[in-house]
Amino acid sequence: MKLIIKRKGFTLAEVLITLGIIGIVASMTLPALTAKYRKRVIETRLKKFYTVMTQAIILSEEDNGPTTDWQLKAADYELDENNEISETALFYNKYLAKYLKTITQKRANLSDKSLLVYLNDGTAFKVSTGDCADFRYIIKPSKLDKTYLISNLTKGRDYFTFRLCPSAGGYYAGGTTGFAPSVNSTNKKDREDRDFLLKNCKTPPADGETCTALIMHDGWEIKADYPVKY
Question: pTM to 2 decimals?
Answer without folding.
Answer: 0.79
